Amino acid sequence: xxxxxxxxxxxxxxxxxxxxxxxxxxxxxxxxxxxxxxxxxxxxxxxxxxxxxxxxxxxxxxxxxxxxxxxxxxxxxxxxxxxxxxxxxxxxxxxxxxxxxxxxxxxxxxxxxxxxxxxxxxxxxxxxxxxxxxxxxxxxxxxxxxxxxxxxxxxxxxxxxxxxxxxxxxxxxxxxxxxxxxxxxxxxxxxxxxxxxxxxxxxxxxxxxxxxxxxxxxxxxxxxxxxxxxxxxxxxxxxxxxxxxxxxxxxxxxxxxxxxxxxxxxxxxxxxxxxxxxxxxxxxxxxxxxxxxxxxxxxxxxxxxxxxxxxxxxxxxxxxxxxxxxxxxxxxxxxxxxxxxxxxxxxxxxxxxxxxxxxxxxxxxxxxxxxxxxxxxxxxxxxxxxxxxxxxxxxxxxxxxxxxxxxxxxxxxxxxxxxxxxxxxxxxxxxxxxxxxxxx
Amino acid sequence: xxxxxxxxxxxxxxxxxxxxxxxxxxxxxxxxxxxxxxxxxxxxxxxxxxxxxxxxxxxxxxxxxxxxxxxxxxxxxxxxxxxxxxxxx
Lengths: 440, 89
Prior knowledge:
The complex is a heterodimer. Chain A is α/β, with parallel strands linked by helices.
């Protein structure tokens, strides 16, 4: 059932907000869901919110729908822990703008979802409160860092969820869990109230069952916010002008079976819609290098506030290894940066990557490639830092350029979900939804 | 740097921190070496759209102060204790 269909049911009185909420809480508190370790905290006020929505005469456009958020998005009176012992006792004193926008439309916040600690991870394993398991195969990782939001959608524990995406953190778990995940254009959605990982990349976006649902939620949360100076309203969107899809050459970077599945599906949809396919190259060989130097630098900077004085505990004393790695790495960059060796080179590379996208979009309407280069590994499996970082190899480039991108499910390989990624120019989310719909 | 380990959360010892520091330096040097080969100029962002309209500003939430104080590890009457070193007590 799509969100529009459920909203119709609620509007016609066939389902109340309270009934909808109770259906979800029953599933969330079941042993099966608890074993998957998806939720960190439930909202104690949710039932009162649902009752209030049912009593309202003039209701918002999302009235009665239930949503859950990644535990790095602030919600007043709730523990916003970032899945870290640093903030395990931290209560948010305010709502993120995205939460306010959804509550204003009478959606009901169910709770906070598990994630990689401070969003540092691509597997969902680095949470200080235990890894989230992949609902389709609990031995496997669900992907990260928005592991909880993706797993919650795969198990239908909410109508929709919100995650954050820095280098693939919405798209990667959406791909491994078989759901839809949108990373909006940088600046399309307010980051006010998001506990940042890398502020020049971070974006909040929806995870849903369908692209139609993703559009509904994106349209609700997007727009200029005076509390986030990087936001602006979405300009008018383009249509499919050239009728050309850019299919990225990923043969040196991705699993062959995944490449075949993405190419077959793309050819099939292109033929159906009379679109042409153009093979293109992206600078995939420098994406990880550029991304992680910038991430280390900005993450080191943003974590200086976690000194144990105003809130929480000192981050260096209680964080897990991946968080420590990024802090130490950022510290090393800061020490050596007078030579312009790391950060300056990465900023130059960032500029180069943006220019490459600009050139490509002169010839194609959209770019398509696999969301993840490989199938998910087993939870607790031995893996090198480089291999873990390489999970992001196909998702970091649009993040570096601030472009919107979506992951949609396109079937399974070896009974594991595979996602297809669509990228468009800045603020062209409407075009993404139009193209993505064809693939569903 | 290609040493394998599992990625599950655990407490980090001082010895492990030293290892992470060595590995990070090595990884960053590898990354920087690769990026230094790119031939491109530096770029500075210029806003071509002009200055955007701003709104009415901030409305203070009456609960903000009480929740913020409740979050602080050490509070002395009307102040959060945040002098250098005092969080260690």
